[in-house]
Amino acid sequence: MTAPLLPRQATAPDEGGTPPPTAEDRKHVVRRRWITATIILLLVGVPAGYLAVSAQQSREAGRDKAAKVGAVHVRPSWPSKVQRSVYEVPIPITAWSVGFLETNNWHTSRLYTQFTVKEKDLEAFLTAVGTSRAQLTPGAAGEAFSAHDVKAAGWKWNPGTTLYATTIEQPDPRPTRDIAVDFSGPNPRVYAVSTATP
User: Fold this and answer.
1) DSSP assigned state of 130
2) What is the tens place of the pLDDT at every residue in 105-116?
3) Taking a C-beta distance cutoff of 8 angstroms, is the pair 191, 155 a contact?
């Protein structure tokens, strides 16, 4: 019977096998530490910078949202395309002095808009909403809209102002639109309240 073969043992370090590790020279130590520090800085700094930028953008968006939500009267600005589409108020792109206010509650959502247009653009607007100038009926400013809507929008007219108004009713969930036009100035001034009931 032959003796089993055993694996060969490595020689002890002091017997002259592998040489002992040499000490790194100073230049390599400094270089390695700089690389390590740079990597750590990038791993920590880049996400921290991203978080800071995101937080700032979020704060700004929150302020903008709060300004929109906190508005208590029609303010000078264009409603978004989505708002104009949902409430079916196609404000002509040539309009100026545009203002709007959107209010929402559990029962109804309203978009109050006002803008000034040229005569030809008024005709195009009235056609787009499904009415015409012939369907506008004259009346006192207070008769065109409910007292609630006038107060919410912050609209004020001179005493004796005549508004030419109409109401375009549609089945739910499409909005009902009250539209009034003031012809007392050099250009028609349009006021509209679009009410949607979900």
Assistant:
1) T
2) 888 899 999 999
3) yes
